[in-house]
Structures are given as structure tokens and as C-alpha cells.
Amino acid sequence: MRPAWLEVNFDALAHNFNLLRTTAGHVQVVGIVKANAYGHGAVEVGKELLRLGAWGLAVATTQEARELRKAGIVSRILLMGSLHPQQASEVLELDLIPSISTLESAEALNALGKAVAVHLEFDTGMGRVGFQPEEAPLVKEHFARYENLLIQGIYSHFADAEEDEPWTREQITRFQQVQQVFGPGYFYHLCNTAGTINYGEYGLSAVRPGIGLYGLLPNLGLRPIARLLAKPTQVKELPPGRRIGYGGLYTTQGREWIATLPVGYADGMPRLVFNRATVRYFPGPEAQPPEPCICPVVGRVSMDQITVRIPAPVGLDQVFEVVTPDFNPTSSLWGWAELTGTVSYEPAVRLSPRLPRVYLRDGVEVARVE
Ligand SMILES: *Cc1c(COP(=O)(O)O)cnc(C)c1O
Description:
Elements: E1 4-9, H1 10-23, E2 28-32, H2 34-38, H3 42-51, E3 56-59, H4 62-70, E4 77-79, H5 88-93, E5 97-100, H6 103-110, E6 116-121, H7 136-145, E7 149-155, H8 165-182, E8 187-191, H9 193-198, E9 206-207, E10 226-230, E11 234-238, E12 243-244, E13 250-251, E14 256-261, E15 278-281, E16 293-296, E17 306-310, E18 320-323, H10 333-339, H11 345-349, E19 357-361, E20 364-369
Parallel strand pairs: 1-19, 2-3, 2-9, 3-4, 4-5, 5-6, 6-7, 7-8, 8-9
Antiparallel strand pairs: 1-10, 10-18, 11-14, 12-13, 14-17, 15-16, 15-18, 19-20
The structure holds pyridoxal-5'-phosphate.
Cofactor: pyridoxal 5'-phosphate
Pathway: Amino-acid biosynthesis; D-alanine biosynthesis; D-alanine from L-alanine: step 1/1
Keywords: Isomerase, Pyridoxal phosphate
């Protein structure tokens, strides 16, 4: 196996799943595994979410759904986003539950002549996709005429359940108007992670947490589920004045030990974090309890490699944590996001499929994807 890999902790996943589900009053959980399960590996994470009792999985593209089906996953799969009419036949082929936001896609799907369950999406304040709430009576009328479409679920999506309470309350009110038009008997869902945490009482039939499953929001009791690990491919001592990396953006000050780790921006490490990010390792088994050595990333992040300054030589079997499973400002996915002015979703989804992934449950490896 390549000496750089993503380790995914299913115990932390279970912790997050149960925390979110409890917060929402034990309603169903739609396991969001779009974008390769936010970089963690959709097939293995998806299987584990189903094992934990998820109602089903949700993806953004038919390609993502195809990968799950190919891996033998037979669960419900909700295709989020507004279905494009040209993808209607793939919905049937892959046995998906599409999200319908337009009459064009409804008609294209209905015309295929096969019964299919759908979820209607309403735009209560995101402005992206979904029927307008005031169109609900009309939509209901139209759907009564589509003999092949069975409305199974009805949902909407929050724009800012993290911070904007008045707007979120407005969205909830608009969704309730839709619920009044359609009445009981539907699988209603509204809450993403932030919605689940802040408005858990509106869990309705199910919640749709993504980022929370992966534990990438701080201060909520969630636990990041992944570590990015690497072993050095070279460890060397350099004299003062040696330049390191593209552009020579770091020069050794004194005699310095430099380790090269085989991960780079093609693996998802942001190129911009050079000279600011850190990695860490726990030296020797003697130290009880071991204090980690915090090592700065020195010089530019290359496509496939980084260089780090270490306090003392280590062997090539020393494991470094390039991403720590916490909210460390310089060595976590959340920290990388902070350092690059984005949200933790982005460094997560950029974790490249080329990284091998190792899955642990109860500390024991249960799956490996190379
Ligand atoms: C991505 C997505 C989610 C999950 O959002 P998080 O903020 O990651 O919890 C839920 N619902 C829809 C429609 C989405 O596109």
C-alpha cells in the first residue's frame, strides 16, 4: 500500500450519527454521501451508515449513485438537486428516488411508463432549486395526472441554519404551508446538519445531515472521522542555507532535519497552506503518554509531496498525522479550511480518491480500498 492513506473511524461516524439522530428526536436519517461521502469514500461509508440504521443514502449525481449500485448497495438512494429531464431514464435504470423541481422533469419521467417514487423539492428560501411554496396546489394537481409518479417525499433545504434564525424560521413557515397543501402521509424532510442541531424539533420524518456525519463542525460534540496519515519517504539533515521546494520559499536556518512525506495537493492538501500548516507524530513507544512532535510544513506543497521540519531523525516507518481528527488550526481539515478562507466541506471533498482508505471499527480494520 502507498505510504500515505486516509484512515476512517467508524466509531466516530456512529457517534456522530447517533448524536444527530438523538438531537432530531430519533427520526430517520438520510445518509448524505455525495462527493464521495465528503471525501471519505462513498461505498464504505454508505454501507456503514446503512448498518447504523440510515433510512437510505443521498447523492448529487447519477454517477455517484451508479458507484453505489455497482458495489452492491440496494438501499434507497435519493438523488438530490433538480433532476434534469435528460437523466430520467437513468433514474429507472439505477432505481433511484429523484428530486423533482420542475414539471419538465416530471413529464419526462412519467413518459417512460414505469412507476417511480419521487421526492418533490420546494424552494423555501434557498433560491436554487425547487417549486415555489405558493405553487404547491398547482403542483399537487399536476401530479395527480402523472399516472407513473408516486410522491413519496417532500422536502426543502436551508440556506443558513447556522446563523440566520429569522430567515430559517421563515423557511420553516413556508415549508409548513406546503405541508398544509399536501397533508399527512408523506416523508417530509428539511434539516441539514445545522438545521438538525439548531432546529431539531423540525426533524419531521427525517433529517439529512452531511457535514455533521463527518464531524467537521467544531464545538457541537461531533468528532472528525478521518485522519490523513503518511510515512516519510526520505529523512535527511541539511546544513543552513538550503532551499526547499518549488520557488525556494523556505531556506534552512541552521542544521535542520527535514522529512519528505508523499502527499501533496493532488491528494487534497491545499497548496496555499505551505509554511503555515503543521503535521505531527508521536515519537517512540517509550514516551508514556507520548507528547506529539508538531512539525511545520516548510516550502511549497508539491503535487505529490510535502516537506516538514522535524526536531530529530525518525525512521521511514514513523507515521505522521497530516490531518488530525480534531479542530487543530494548523493540522485538521477544519484548520486547512480556516487557513484558506473556506469551509471545512471544501478540503474534505478534495481528499483525492487516489488516497488509499482504511476503515476501522472498534479500532480494528474492517475494510480497505486501494
Ligand atoms: C448537501 C446537502 C445536505 C447536507 O448538508 P450538510 O450541511 O452537509 O449537513 C442536505 N440536503 C441537501 C439537499 C444537500 O444538498
